[in-house]
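Weekly puzzle thread! Below is a chain. First person to post its structure in token form gets bragging rights.
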Amino acid sequence: MDKIKLAVTPREEKTPRLLRREAKIPATLYGPGQPSESVQIDAKEFSRLPKHAYSHMIELDMGKGKPVNAIIREVQRKATTHEVLNVELYRVALDRKLTVTVPLKFIGVSTAVTVEGGQLIEVFQDAEIECLPGDIPDYIECDLSQITEIDQGLHFGELTISDKIKILNPEDEVVARVVAKKAIVEEAPAAVAEGAAAAPEPAVTAS
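Winning reply:
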């Protein structure tokens, strides 16, 4: 995979609101053994980052000296418009393990669905892992062909992964399962009736 690159510059002495008006995103770069730095990112360039940039190591072009290896630790967005308000960048060392979240990729076909007529339910869409920055995978495969019966689930402990990666989710936690379609249909009316029986409580606001 090609390196993901992102240019950052020292933050100008302007308020965060003014920076955003000028299409710049205020950001913070921090990490173990290093002082925190206030930087800024071009908003258009940040919006062009591929989706996997949020779970992989990226190379920060600081404008001088060697590029800095980092990961996007957190992105704060405005709830109504999803505008990026602030970004936290975590400086990483190539020889130190870190914790990241990567997507799950469902492959294969479950005979519990194709033969038994069950309904597949994907319980998780990603997994939390620990590994060295250079070993972060694009995704973790979940082989649905391992599910052969109705009410059977695929667990995190059953996923095939590299020995360089450790999944932090509990091994007995269900990633995906197949249930009978009839059970889903029967549960729906019960949920509606239960919701109708419980009258909403009046909102209370502090004065």
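Puzzle host: Confirmed. Bonus trivia for everyone else. The chain has two domains: 4-91, 98-193.
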